[in-house]
Amino acid sequence: MINDNIKATGELTVVLRDENGNIKEERKIPNLVVTVGKNFIASRMTSASAAVMSHMGVGSTNTAPSASDTALAAALGTRAALTTAGGTANANVVTFNATFAQGVGTGAIVEAGIFNASTAGTMLARTIFSVVNKDAADTLSVSWALTIS
After folding, report:
1. Are the beta carbons of 113 and 126 closer than 8 angstroms?
2. What is the mean pLDDT of residues 51-75?
């Protein structure tokens, strides 16, 4: 009997820098690949018509992630475009990178998500974490690794 379970998991690395580029805070955080995200992954195997993941958002509400989530609970500002739309694949890991520049996503950040549009769209994954206080002059870089195992 063959028992081959495919699982999608992720981890993001958050780096907060001050206006001079000095690291103020850095941490690694696990995430939840939500149901619509898993459906998106499956749809990409049968069709290239679905828009690739292209943006990352941050928010200010730490409501626990749920598989039924489709959006952040309380987005802070506009979503940041990914450095490479669709991410970068290496073996069974896709990495998504985004930077929230000075004045973007400012505030008490406690949630993040990956999306395939600058507004609305499909959410791939969502996570919550202890507060990261991003001042207007700070820059926040997020590297999100999604592993299919």
Report:
1. yes
2. 96
